[in-house]
Amino acid sequence: MARPYTLPPLPYAEDALAPVISSQTLGFHHGKHHKTYVETLNKLVAGTEFEGQPLEAIIAATAGNASSTAIFNNAAQSWNHAFYWQCMKAKGGGKPQGAIAARIDAAFGSYDDFKKAFAEAAVTQFGSGWAWLVVENDSLKVVKTGNAEVPFTKGMTPLLTIDVWEHAYYLDYQNRRADHVNAVIDKLLNWQFAADNLANVGSVKGSQAAMAH
Ligand code: MN
What we know:
With 213 residues, this protein is mainly α. It has a single domain (21-213), classed as minor pseudopilin epsh fold, CATH 3.55.40.20. Helices cover 52% and strands 11% of the residues. A 3-stranded antiparallel beta sheet has the order 2-1-3, sandwiched between helices. Helix 2 (55-62) crosses helix 3 (69-86). Residues 204-213 have low confidence and may be disordered.
């Protein structure tokens, strides 16, 4: 039997993001919701062709396939949450510095315009889902996805995400999703993580662009 998927630890203490996200919310979100996606995935893939495959491979193979919706949902939610925890840090948020700041200005006009677009995507995602900052064709874009959907099955590379399922904020903000989203953007976003993700894209695309000039 292949090694089971395991719940990755939070990259910070459960109370590190308070008061924007309480330790109670992080405890339930990571220790119950994320854990259940991982455990359910292990049960669903046991004895199938997917057992032991990287999450990204399972997601790519099952996206849009009605006969493997449950495997897709649990693999994608396992991946999404592992990515999401890294998108936040204590004393994060606000305007980024360095190369990514110039890319934000180039794509959106200004940091304030980016913030407006990112918050709007998060607030207007109807029902459960995710808001994302992505790279597509070497341009930064904001997109939103429903339920477990991930941008990389559509050729977009994620840089940052905000979880807008109610379980991400309901204990702290009840129905005030916009307040939660704005607080995450202003105080928690991990721009270093986004810059690292962007640099990894650039190592391939950047050299191609340089040759094209
Ligand atoms: Mn979640």
